[in-house]
């Protein structure tokens, strides 16, 4: 297998189109045509991790956080980012980052977080906006079933737990072809009124190329009439954060001790206790202060996240228990998930989780 074959697997696990606009996901260094020798999975692709990859004969590092987040104007080795990039390039090591592409996946970072705590009835906390589009096209009664089937196969018509979703209506289409036309129904220069079926299907925006390819390949008209609309609907299965329910309600102090043990959190900072039992839990791995209001609106009893600032704890306002369990700690099981996913979708390739502790935060 080549590195590009592994990238296809990773994009299935966490489509890059799911990532936030500010992020820098995907292949950061390396040649996609290199043969894969071994894969090292980590949270942060530091120099020490690259040294480990060299020692273990791995030429692909799959990391959660992108070591290259913003642009570099110079690469002189003056900081930890530049040193890591230089060493990776010198040793022909590819680095691939998943970050918010996996954050936003319904089976990704926050589902992993919820599963570690045994939460059930999980739902996306902040569904992704401006991600759904609609295709509208028109064809003959003889063609519409084959065309619709091809659109479904290309990824159109999936809504939540349902697939093959469409709306179909009948009507009359009109056209008149010029001397260079080759109409499927009627003749050149003839005004034609034909029975047509209108097909409407929604799709995730990154599938547009596949959808149009299927449309043109399976439509019988010489000139395909179609429209694509951007919808304001949120995508309920893609987005940041997640809510879930404990099997049994817990006391707040008992719950935080439970979280500390399950997430191996060395220290938890939290807001004032509300003196209410914890049943519904909101989580957001990594920096999640922006989601405090969403967690309150979702009716969560507690919000687990990281990187909360002093004044943000005031935002609890006795409506919710806010708990900062640590950035690395809130995402700690992500590398295990990545390694397991790759192992289930490859054969004969060494896949190793780093032995380097990349958490920059230390505790007394």
Automatic annotation (TrEMBL):
Under Gene3D superfamilies, the record lists: 3.30.70.120, NIF3 (NGG1p interacting factor 3)-like
Q: Which NCBIfam families match?
A: YbgI_SA1388
Q: Which GO terms describe its cellular component?
A: cytoplasm
Q: Which UniProt keywords apply?
A: Metal-binding
Question: Which proteins does it associate with, and in what oligomeric form?
Answer: Homohexamer.
Q: From which organism does this entry originate? A: Flavobacterium rivuli WB 3.3-2 = DSM 21788
Question: What is the protein name stated in its UniProt record?
Answer: GTP cyclohydrolase 1 type 2 homolog
Residues annotated as binding a divalent metal cation are 65, 103, 327, 331
The organism's place on the tree of life at top rank:
Bacteria
Q: Which Pfam families match?
A: DUF34_NIF3 (PF01784)
SUPFAM superfamilies documented for this protein: NIF3 (NGG1p interacting factor 3)-like (SSF102705)
The entry's family comment says: Belongs to the GTP cyclohydrolase I type 2/NIF3 family.
Show the GO MF annotations.
metal ion binding
């Amino acid at each position: 297998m080549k590195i590009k074959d592994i990238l296809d697997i990773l994009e299935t696990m966490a489509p890059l189109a799911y990532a936030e606009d500010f992020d820098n996901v995907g292949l950061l260094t390396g040649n996609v045509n290199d043969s894969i020798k071994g894969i090292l999975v980590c949270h942060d692709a530091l120099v020490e991790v690259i040294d480990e990859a060299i020692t273990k004969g791995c030429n692909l590092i799959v990391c959660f956080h992108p070591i290259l987040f913003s642009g570099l104007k110079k690469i002189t080795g003056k900081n930890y980012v530049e040193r890591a990039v230089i060493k990776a390039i010198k040793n022909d090591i590819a680095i691939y980052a998943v970050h918010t592409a996996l954050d936003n996946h319904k089976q990704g970072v926050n589902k992993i977080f919820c599963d570690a705590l045994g939460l059930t009835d999980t739902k996306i906390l902040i569904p992704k906006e401006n991600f759904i589009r609609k295709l509208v096209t028109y064809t003959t009664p003889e063609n519409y079933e084959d065309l619709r089937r091809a659109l479904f196969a290309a990824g159109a018509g999936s809504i939540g737990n349902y697939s093959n979703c469409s709306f179909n209506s009948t009507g009359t289409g009109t056209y008149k072809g010029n001397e260079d036309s080759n109409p499927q129904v009627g003749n050149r220069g003839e005004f034609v009124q034909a029975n047509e079926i209108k097909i409407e299907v929604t799709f995730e925006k990154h599938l547009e190329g596949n959808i149009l390819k299927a449309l043109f390949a399976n439509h019988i008209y010489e000139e395909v009439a179609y429209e694509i609309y951007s919808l304001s609907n949120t995508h309920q299965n893609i987005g940041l954060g997640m809510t879930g329910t404990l099997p049994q309600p817990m006391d707040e102090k008992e719950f935080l001790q439970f979280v500390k043990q399950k997430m191996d959190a060395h220290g938890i900072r939290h807001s004032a206790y509300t003196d209410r039992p914890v049943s519904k839990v909101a989580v957001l791995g990594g920096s999640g202060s922006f989601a405090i209001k969403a967690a309150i609106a979702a009716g969560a009893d507690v919000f687990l996240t990281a990187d909360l600032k002093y004044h943000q704890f005031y935002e609890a306002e006795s409506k919710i228990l806010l708990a900062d369990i640590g950035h690395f700690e809130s995402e700690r099981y992500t590398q295990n998930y990545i390694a397991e996913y790759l192992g289930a979708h490859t054969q004969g390739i060494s896949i190793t989780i780093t032995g380097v502790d990349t958490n920059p935060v230390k505790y007394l």
